[in-house]
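Dear support,

I submitted the protein below through the web form. The confirmation email said the job was done, but the results page showed an empty box. After a refresh the structure appeared. I'm attaching both so you can tell me whether what I see now is the final result or a partial one.
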Amino acid sequence: MGAEEHRQQAGRGPVTVATVTVSDTRTPETDANQSYIAARLAELGHTVAAYRLIRDEPDQVAAALDELCALPGVQIVLFNGGTGISPRDTTYDVISRRLEKTLPGFGELFRAISYQEIGAAAMLSRATAGVYRGVVVVSMPGSPHAVRTALERLILPEINHLAWEVARRA
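What the results page shows now:
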């Protein structure tokens, strides 16, 4: 069965999402990424079941990942922030070690799209995705432009397909 048949079987029903902003400087009031993500998901009929704003500390990233992937009904967890190479960027390191299945194509496509928009600086992104405890986990950069790119070009076009795939039983 091809991708189009999978998309048709996945349908267009609502997907339940949890979101995490990883930032040492943002507050819930200044978290434009969360506002954008929540608004876009709601526009499309999806649900944001939980939101966390955490510092880029490995223990906080791990705790948020474990907590949100254990919430009943959550199908996808979206992280934004902490994917760069600075010493404070640890989100990728924590998430990539825990993923049980990886989706290398997400990071590859994100960087390819970003390259067309920002040039060689795209190589600095460690955007990644995969599956952890039966939940799709996506980790994208924290810049508002990067969040919009990842959401609009990669995540939303396949959100139902992603949720359907992990829900399937062999």
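Response: this is the final, complete result; the empty box was a page-load delay. The beta strands are 16-22, 47-54, 76-80, 101-102, 128-132, 135-140.
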